Amino acid sequence: MRVFRCVLACVGLAVFGASLSGADVRGRALEILRTHAQDGHRVISEYNALPLEFSSPSGTTIRFSRSTDFMQYIKGSSESGILGSLSTAVHEICHGLTARKGAQMRLSSGATASGGGAYLLNGRYLFVPYNGQIFPSHKVKSMIPKRLRTTRFETYVEDDDEAIGTQQEGIYGQLDEWHAYYHDMLASVDLWSYYRAKSRLTADECADFFAGIDGTLYAYGEFKLYLLACLRYARERVPQAYQAYLGNTAFRTVVLELDQAFSSLIARYFAMKPTVIAHMRAQGHDVRDEGDTIWIGETGRGTFRKEWKLLETALSSQPWVREFAAVRSGVWR
Fold first, then answer.
1. Which structural domain, as residue segments, surrounds residue 252?
2. Nearest partner of 193 among 80, 301, 85, 32, judged by Cα
3. How many structural domains compose the chain?
């Protein structure tokens, strides 16, 4: 993600490989997001604007110990370092926004759940109370066939480290990750306008644009699968939790909207890809999309298309279609 034609206030033209000072890096990162990836900018700016402490009318208080600076995820001080880090920064701050905005909405709504999260979809926040028994995600390992255990399975399902959100918050932790990966990919796709505006793209910039998206795209299928595996586990072994999940209208609404938003984002990327490649070719780059590999000249990078297709095929079959239908209707049939 790199396109540089913008002007830095008080510093002149930004040079793609040149180093910037700390304050300039922060300003440049926010300016790129504000101009080219407004949803990503909203995630970071609205997180930064939230206080650390929230109180309800009844006197209940929730206090967060600290705020996370998105700059800790920005690697280096060059334009290329900024561009290569923005989607990660959006992803990580999205977790904080979900938690902190969720605390604010939980107290203001008078919800009785012990936890909850705020999900930014379709331009507004949806609050999900974390109702029902929460069990760690490693318990659902057996629900996921070995052939579907792709890259993120070990970290977000199998690893029983209690510090990981998907172990602490179970199915709601999976929803939180799914949401963060959506905003991660959304920022990467939106940043094409930055690259397109650049007077001259380099081969590395072409490759980096695709890499930032292709490495995230199949997370759509991974986290949908993990969430449905949690539902299946609850249905078969913890029926009271399953009923609480299906009875959680806000949870079901966010799952459905996130599924639609993420799948539409993937469709948008695939639809724009021929135009992106044509633009790169017009600038003199030999770009070839061979499905599992995208070639820029003599250098090829994997697209993870096999993983994406594997998960898409699985999620289009039983029992996962039936499991998702219960989310849609609120009833297992």
1. 7-329
2. 32
3. 1
